[in-house]
Amino acid sequence: VPNLSGPLNSIRGSLTGNAFGPGGSDFQDMYKIFIPTPSAFFAESLVVAGGFDIQLWLFDESGLGVLGNDNAMSITDQAAFGPATDDATPGLVAPGIYYLAISGAGSDPFSAGGEIFDFATPTEVSGPDGLGGSLPIAFWTEPGAIGEYYIELTGVEFVPAPATLLVLGFGGLLTARGRRRSA
Questions:
Q1: End-to-end alpha carbon distance in the chain
Q2: 3-class DSSP state for residue 158?
Q3: How far is CA 50 from the centre of its chain?
Q4: C-alpha–C-alpha distance, residues 6 and 59, integer Å
């Protein structure tokens, strides 16, 4: 397994809808990513082939919803997000490990409490304001649209190796400790 580090600028994949492959159906893909500077984060999906209506989702490391978008402002088959455009959440505020998910229209994330995101408009970048927004993702509605996709990313890196995370965490503790001393 290669040790990847540094910026992650794009992801390419496909949702085939194949229910007979390993692990079940293929109506969603989810990627583990590292966001070092939340204010720099931006993701935009592009359709590679066919009339594929894309949705993008962002979850924190524990599976709680952070952001969701059904349709980008400019093209209805694309999805994009940066900051939330509703008042449901503070949005993406802390650096860390997140899960970026993509699904086709009709396949939405649910928790044990219900739908995680509630879109007031088709182009809203939503926080976790659905009935199940306070709980982690448990399942997806199926089926959804299928096709090939390409996601352009800004402010995203490969997930650091565990030793790197330990050093980053230790550095944060030293910084916090130093701040307490000077207060």
A1: 45
A2: coil
A3: 23
A4: 21
> What domains sit in the chain, N to C, each tagged with a CATH number?
10-182 (2.60.120.380)
Q: Reading across the β-sheet that carries 42-49, which strands appear in turn? A: 10-15, 147-154, 42-49, 80-81
pLDDT of residue 90: 67
- Distance CA(28)–CA(41), nearest Å, equals 21
3-state DSSP assignment of residue 77: coil
Percentage of the chain lying above the pLDDT 90 cut: 43
Supply 34's token pair: 């590292």
Q: How far apart are CA 115 and CA 31, in angstroms?
A: 21
133 or 145, greater pLDDT:
133
Tell me, yes or no, if the pTM score tops 0.85: no
Cis amide linkage into residue 143, ω under 30° from 0: yes
- Token representation of residue 179: 């701040």
